[in-house]
Amino acid sequence: MERLYALGIDAFRLMTYLLQPQSVEDISFDGVTGHIHFAPPNQFIREAVAAQFAQGKVQLLDVQKNIIENEGQ
User: Fold this and answer.
1) Do 46 and 10 touch, CB atoms closer than 8 A?
2) Using an 8 Å Cβ cutoff, are 41 and 57 in contact?
3) Is 34 left (phi over 0), alpha (psi -120 to 50) or beta?
4) Considering only CA atoms, which of 65, 70, 30 is closest in space to residue 47?
5) Contact of 59 with 52, CB cutoff 8 Å
6) In terms of DSSP bridges, do strands 57-60 and 51-54 run parallel, antiparallel, or are they unpaired?
7) What strand order describes the sheet that includes 28-30?
8) pLDDT digits over 49-62, tens only?
């Protein structure tokens, strides 16, 4: 249920941006579910933030770094 709630928050925030007098291409923000930005021709992309819990604390993962290291093996 929390995921749907977070998605609803992001949808509401996106609508507030769409109702403002600005270019759609300029819309980019950090939402509850990840970074959201416009991608031509007519899409909004959500890039999730990779993280994990370690000893009760959230630690962000550097996914790009891990991909590059794994490709070199």
Assistant:
1) yes
2) no
3) left
4) 30
5) yes
6) antiparallel
7) 28-30, 35-39, 43-47
8) 888 888 888 888 87
Structure tokens belonging to residue 5: 């709630």
Q: How many domains, in total, are found in the chain?
A: 1
Q: Which residue has the tokens 């509401």?
A: 12
Q: Which alpha helices (H) appear in 1-73, and where do they start and end?
A: 2-18, 63-71
Q: Which of the two residues, 64 and 7, has the higher pLDDT score?
A: 7
Please determine, for residue 25, whether its predicted confidence score (pLDDT) is greater than 80: yes
C-beta separation of 65 from 57 below 8 A = no
Structural domain harbouring 62: 2-71
| Residues whose CB is less than 8 angstroms from the CB of residue 35 and which lie 6 or more positions away in sequence, other chains included | 28, 29, 46, 47, 49
